[in-house]
Amino acid sequence: MPIDETRYLAVAWEMHLNNSYIVPHLNGLPYSHKPPLLFWLINLDWWLFGVNERTLRAIPLLFSLLNILLIYRIGLQLWRDSRTARYAAIITASCLLYLIWSSLIMFDIVLTFWVLLGIYGLLKAGQAKNMKPWLLVGLGLGGGLLTKGPVILVHVLPVALLGFLWLPRSVQIKRWYGGLLLALGIGLGLVSLWLIPAVMTGGEGYRQDILWGQTVNRVVSSFAHRHPWWWYLPLVPVLLLPWILLRPVWSGFAMVRKDPGRCFPTVWALSSLAVLSLISGKQIYYLVPLIPAFSLLLARNITTFPADTSSSRWYYPPATLYILLGILVYLLRYLPLEGSSADILLFRTGLLALGLITTGLVFLVLRNREIEPLVTWTGLSSAALICLLLVSGDRFFQRYDIRDVARILKAREEQGYTLINKGKYYGQFQFTGRLTRPVLVAHRINDLRNYVENHEKSLLITYEPVDRAINQDEIFFQQLYRGKKLVLWNEQGMKKYLSR
């Protein structure tokens, strides 16, 4: 899916193509936005199975599975209760955002693994009489730094620094913070094994970006995804759908002070959320590593809810949600939607609406006094929803399918054409087309005109309004793409385009 997945695959492709395993590159230029661990994992996959797309999904899925196992271990460590630990694992695995991101070739699920490893190490360190658990914390910090940079500190350091709020009284605070310094040293030592060679060989611009631009600038004044401090607050309930609709998950928050096990995930969730809210750049998937913290709290609330209380009425809220969503999806076809909001109509809305309403009705049919079936079906309903989206969204996904474009670009590259992209280029064609040379990027029409006038065999890529009429004699190819029309202009078309 462009533009994120294709961009990261492009970086991994150029790493493979040019053997540039220390300094990542995108479209021929050093890429400082992310550290290299995910790109290394992609190249490891290609080394094992050959360059392909199909096996790459195993990377986030494997880390997602490891995350579920770690959440279970953390739940056991907190409460010595396998039922709570199992519910926490189920809740995390079936939160809609976690399910979606578990299949995407992006950083957040991998980062979540390192966060959980560090968190698990902190729990063990709070109960151990030696320093060995701090090695786990250090490994988690180092892996997180190599995966997505200093954001790992946002998820692990606050809960560690606030240890006096949740640690047993027998723990010596000075020894605790000494262990934390040791873990930080281990984490920084691990990342320096890559960072020092990278800044030495990447050039001055790369050195400035990796050490300053991608850390301080993102925190103080992000160049992308800027939102106010409160932006995450209304998204937390969305993050926990559909579980947030069950009454038992709201029942135990008053018990935080009486239950030391609840105190730890509360400090973890709230402190990390507070720090993330203060950072300028925000995206909803930045919260993915926090889903386990909330899941632990929700799971404990469910297991401690009075057993003699009938749970049959708890089925009504999720049933209502799915039925109302189904009705809304069905009615969308009759609304005058325009622009990007009309993309929902690319889904087979009738099929999606029927599936959603059926899911809601199953909740009503399965009403039971026991809580175990409720937990099971709530988890399965999330998986059912994801399957519905995949089955009904084939036309939507075609809008983002650039494989035909990439094949044409590859053929023209092999014929000696220079590929020129008008406007910002995200590397979306590099891996998909297995391109071996950078795409020329032209932002201004004068720069584009000067280049074309002095070079032969050029192919121009532009993104036009959907309603613009295109003469077929002037283009190689066109298709709908991300709310616009992607056009590959031939020589005749370029002359007319540049003469406007």
UniProtKB/TrEMBL annotation:
ATP-binding among keywords? no
Membrane topology note: Multi-pass membrane protein
Q: Which Pfam families match?
A: PMT_2
- Supply one GO molecular-function term: pentosyltransferase activity
- Main localization is membrane
Q: Where is the Glycosyltransferase RgtA/B/C/D-like domain?
A: 33-184
Could you tell me the superkingdom of the organism this chain comes from? Bacteria
- GO biological process: what's one of them? lipopolysaccharide biosynthetic process
**Residue intervals passing through the bilayer:** 56-75, 96-122, 134-167, 179-200, 229-246, 267-288, 314-332, 344-365, 377-397
Q: Where in the cell is it found?
A: Cell membrane
Any one cellular-component term (Gene Ontology):
plasma membrane
The identity of this protein, by name, is Glycosyltransferase RgtA/B/C/D-like domain-containing protein
Q: What is the phylogenetic placement of the source species in the record?
A: Bacteria, Pseudomonadati, Thermodesulfobacteriota, Desulfobulbia, Desulfobulbales
What InterPro entries does the annotation carry?
A: LipidA_mod_glycosyltrf_83, RgtA/B/C-like
Which keywords appear in this protein's UniProt record, sorted alphabetically? Cell membrane, Glycosyltransferase, Membrane, Transferase, Transmembrane, Transmembrane helix
Q: Tell whether Transmembrane helix is among the UniProt keywords.
A: yes
